[in-house]
Amino acid sequence: MMSLGVEQIATKPDALDAVVTPKRLVHIDTEEVTVSLEIGRGSVRQKHELEHSRELHVYRYGTYFDSYLATEPGREEFWSSNRSGLISYVRRGRHILVGGGLIAPDEQKSALLAEFMEFLAHRKFAAAFHNISDAELVHFRRHGFQITKWGEEPLLDLGNVTWKGKEYEWVRRQVNYCTRHGLQVSEIIPEQLPTQQWNRIFAEMLEVSAECLSLKPQAEMGFFEGQIRDHRIGLRRVFIARNENSQDRIEGFLVCNPIQNGMAWSTELYRRRKDAVRGTMAFLFHHAMTQFQNEGVQRVAFCLDPAANCANKLSGDSALIRWGMTIGAWLNITMDVEGMRHFKSRFRPRYENRYVCVTPKTTIGSLWAFAQVSGLFAVNPWKVVKRAISRSLNRR
User: Number of folded domains in the chain?
Assistant: First the structure.
């Protein structure tokens, strides 16, 4: 088994249940609070200097796969007057785009949104909240938001998952194939590595990411996707797959964001090499989820499945958003929605509705702001044509 200093090591599994439970204790010091967070079980300690306790707050109260993106650079913040709630956003002109939902204890969410509405009214801003669940729509209906479904999120409840039986046959096949071809998975804890060692690993992760993105017609979605650049990994968890048959090069990696005090995690960012061993991503996902199971994590979120079952009109919704989300052919060519949907479905998740909540209502201006922030039109036309031709030929 390979070993990289103080990296968290998982076994190269001979069977699907052969996984080492990680041991990790995060110690957080801030100007306002000193607290220990247990991630998994055990005694590995990390020290984080957190400005205004933002990371700790988002770790504890983030509800969605993109809540932790509030810690990334380039975002503005709105804190409630008692600092119990946070809203993370970007602004284009008078249009505010919110990601990560209402980041607050449940009993404080209504008050947080009420204060935010006063902020919007005072400055005559419009706002759009993205990826809101059915459970939280009550807060937005109270303030007259226009609510439109824009996709579904696959969620896997880990409590009863055994990875056995016909429904997980595909997953087992990918894991066994990768194992036979020399892949090993380890969890990386950057703060516990010598700086030079982490820099080497991170540089190779950037190399893998660039290689993977070079195949895609659509650039990274900016505000709606996590980034691996020059900011800290923070309380995210990083899993890498190395190939012992290829000088231990990194074949792919998975970065998971914390949700609800670490009782759930999202598979928010993942990349692989062009010539990675077939099944590398499934191998990484399976390892991470099995490790989470051993830690007592309740759920894994697979992030938004855009445009899923959005054709039906809802009372008072936005026809502009609904029509836009039903242009599935374009989304599939640029973002490979169909491929991602198929991959995630192999883990047999359940699905929850996700909505865009807009005040006062969706306009051409608000959609243009969305396109600017998300990089929706940052598309390479030659790659679009190449992918369309390739898929057309594959259907013959």
Answer: 2
d(CA 215, CA 186): 26
- Contact between residue 22 and residue 291 where contact means Cβ atoms under 8 Å apart: yes
pTM: 0.83
Q: End-to-end distance of the chain based on CA atoms, in angstroms?
A: 45
Q: For 114-153, write each residue's pLDDT tens digit.
A: 999 999 999 999 999 999 999 999 999 999 999 999 999 9
Beta bridge partners of 257: 266
Look at residue 227 in the predicted model and tell me its pLDDT.
77
One-character DSSP codes across 191-252: GGS-HHHHHHHHHHHHHHHHHHHTT-SBPP-GGGS---SSS--TT-EEEEEEEGGGTTEEEE
**For 174, what's the count of Cα atoms within 13 Å in the CB-facing half-sphere?**
19
Q: Is residue 27 part of a domain?
A: no
The boundaries of the domain holding residue 47 are 34-155+302-394
Per-residue pLDDT reduced to its tens digit, 51-62:
448 899 999 999
> Do 59 and 188 have their domain in common?
no
Query: Do 234 and 331 belong to one domain?
Result: no
213 lies in the same domain as 291: yes
In this structure, is residue 381 part of a structural domain?
Answer: yes
> Looking at the domain assignment, is residue 243 inside a domain?
yes
> For residue 330, which of 309, 307, 313, 353 has the smallest C-alpha distance?
307
